[in-house]
């Protein structure tokens, strides 16, 4: 199955349904199942600021957010469907998406049907990369989202 590595807190924002688009500077023809992987290095200062801003501006979301140090890293955090790859110039994102994406990039990858999944100790790669289907099946049976160090 294909996977895509994102920095934290963005990977968890997808897992929680806060972020529906992932912005990239490259187009993909791929459509289908996609694992979202939290990379090893979180967005430290910027992540703290973003979590604070989201908590203040979108009160219900604030209850879902953790301190940046508690987000899982080097782990797959969810499975979703990549359903479209849209030029960012063709639509205007809502305020929440604008805050959680890099809209100066060229393409917005539309993510739907997000399902919680936690597979720890996974090193990611650049671009779309393959993760063994049998590992996904093994962890899918007991799928739940957990914080870092769990």
Structure description:
InterPro entries: PUA-like_sf. It is a single chain. With 150 residues, this protein is α+β, with helices and mostly antiparallel strands. It has a single domain, classed as Hypothetical protein (Archaeosine Trna-guanine Transglycosylase, Chain: A, domain 4). Helices cover 25% and strands 30% of the residues. The chain has a 6-stranded mixed β-sheet. The radius of gyration is 15 Å and the shape is globular. The two termini are 25 Å apart. The C terminus is likely disordered.
Keyword list:
single chain; 150 residues; alpha+beta; Archaeosine Trna-guanine Transglycosylase, Chain: A, domain 4; 6-stranded mixed sheet; 5 helices; 6 strands; disordered C terminus; PUA-like_sf
């Amino acid at each position: 199955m294909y996977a895509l590595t994102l920095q934290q807190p963005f990977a968890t924002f997808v897992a929680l349904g806060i972020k529906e688009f992932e912005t990239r500077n490259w187009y993909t023809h791929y459509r289908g199942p996609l694992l979202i992987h939290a990379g090893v290095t979180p967005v430290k200062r910027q992540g703290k600021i973003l979590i604070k801003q989201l908590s203040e501006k979108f009160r219900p979301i604030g209850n879902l957010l953790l301190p940046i140090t508690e987000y899982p890293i080097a782990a797959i955090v969810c499975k979703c469907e990549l359903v479209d790859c849209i030029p960012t110039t063709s639509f205007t994102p809502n305020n929440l998406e604008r805050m959680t994406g890099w809209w100066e990039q060229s393409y917005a990858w539309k993510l739907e049907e997000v399902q919680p999944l936690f597979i720890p100790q996974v090193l990611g790669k650049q671009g779309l990369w393959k993760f063994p289907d049998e590992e996904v099946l093994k962890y899918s049976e007991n799928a739940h989202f957990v914080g870092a160090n769990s």
